Amino acid sequence: MELLLQTLINGILAAGIYALVASGLALAVGVVGIVNFAHGEFTMIGAFIAYLLFVGTGLDPFLSLGLAALVLFGVGAITYLGLIRPVLAAPELNQMLLTFGLSVALQNIALLLFGADTRVVSTSYQGATLSLGGLSFGVPPLLAFGLSVVILGALYGFLDRTRLGLAVRAVAQNRLAPGLLGIETQRVYLLAFGLSAALAGVAGVMLSVMLYASPTVGFAYTLKAFAIIVMAGLGNLRGVVPAAIILALAEALVSTYLPGGGGWVEAVFFLVIFVALTWRSWRAA
Amino acid sequence: MILVGLLLLVALVLPGLPLGEWRAFLLDTAQFAFLISALALAWDLLARTGQLSLAHGAFFGLGAYAAALAAPALGTLPALLVGGVVAGASSLFLGLATLRLHGMYFAIATLAFSEVMRTLVLKAPFTGGAIGLPVQPAFGGAFPLGGYYLAVGVLALAAGISLLLSRSRLHYAMAATRQGEAVARVLGVPVIRVKLLAFMISAFLAGLAGGVYAMKTLFLSPYDAFGLGRAVEALVIPIFGGLYTTTGPLLGGLIIVSLETWLRLRIGEGYLVVYGVILVLTILFLPRGLVSLFHRKGAGHA
């Protein structure tokens, strides 16, 4: 019973980061209509920013969150203006290939700059845990989870309560009508793509503490984010949080209860993608 | 067409030419280029139906492992066939489940498929896992050039099928499927069957190329055979060379693999950066590939 509870807690704590990365991807897909294969690479950049700041200035990663978010917003905006906007009207195949190319390029540039080693930000509280009724909570996952909840709350507040947020949601629902109503679609795209990258970057900062920074760390998160938004329904922002929790719980259960489970965790997101996609396609057919 | 024949002819006589001290290196690079070009041709066949596959690295790897495991018992040629058939069969399963999906959904499903294949090969008891799998050379090493000519053969087969398909009724069915599935269906094209057929032929060729690759490198590891690098090469080459053509992937393959080999010697890890950059630049500035440059000059129309 205790093992089960502990597993469930681990799963839920992991869901925070998943939801951050996936909300970013859902913004890119839902609002801009771009399937961004380079999304995980934005996460990777965030992780390296945290690592470099920590090594260079000793800045605590959780304090560099804001800076990383700003930098990644800029990276996302530049990516949108330089690469995405020119292909907005191109066939979907071209758009996917473009972001896939960006992903490969960023991964390998990082490989050239930093090598393939994994780098951990070792803070003083890294191994610290809180115990509560026989269950233990790691401090970094707890912090990351709390921050994720706050950031996601702010994101949903922005989308629900502000005029700009409403404009973003309007564009997500319909490409043409908001333009006729005086919403500047291009600026909404820019904002959404920047936000998308910033969310990925923030998640990356947290990863640098909980996992590590490496050139390929982001790629798995692209796939997991895809699994989540596919489960939620592509472009459906509301469904992201429950879908993230389901994926994280499934992974936690597999790693605890399946013999030799560690390696199979990597297969869980595939199963999720697969089941969600085929179920959808057969239901639609 | 003429260019394709010329290229294959050069490939055939290459070992006989006086290449000097670089001979071994040149032949080795050429063999690699032929196999990757064959993989690119195979990828292009599926792309003609409008599906973006990120699983071709996995088919290549499956073919490599299957051929390597079958070779001691069956001999070289039947083992290669086994490799192709295993890849083709796996594409049938993947395709039956996913080919109803469009665009991004299919791409994501194939990407996930290849990640899981790597996990399976890492975990399976008979593949050598993370340590790797030693492979016998082609024909037990009886002919030094055996592997080279096998690569030429696979390339010729891929180019032949690619040419044949662009002259067949299936070509129109594939093009119609790509350009508008609903319309194609109304016109009586069995869309799912066309896609499935293209997928299987494509995966079979990728598996064949993988088998010859295994007998060339003599050693397989999941990270090499199932790495994302193969899937990237398979799609960047046709796009750079020119989609939906036979000349495009051939030409692109030779150019890009030469570039890759040179870069690998110079910077080692991270050489794939060139694929990313080429992919992005091609999509932005030359979306119809190298081949479109020739057409514009030759025929006077874009």
TrEMBL record, chain A:
Keywords: Amino-acid transport, Cell membrane, Membrane, Transmembrane, Transmembrane helix, Transport. It is found in: Cell membrane. This is Inner-membrane translocator. Pfam families: BPD_transp_2. The chain crosses the membrane at residues 12-35, 42-59, 65-84, 96-115, 135-159, 188-212, 264-282. GO terms for molecular function: transmembrane transporter activity. GO terms for cellular component: plasma membrane. It is a multi-pass membrane protein. Signal peptide: none annotated. Belongs to the binding-protein-dependent transport system permease family. LivHM subfamily. The lineage of its organism: Bacteria, Thermotogati, Deinococcota, Deinococci, Thermales. GO terms for biological process: amino acid transport. It comes from Meiothermus ruber (strain ATCC 35948 / DSM 1279 / VKM B-1258 / 21) (Thermus ruber).
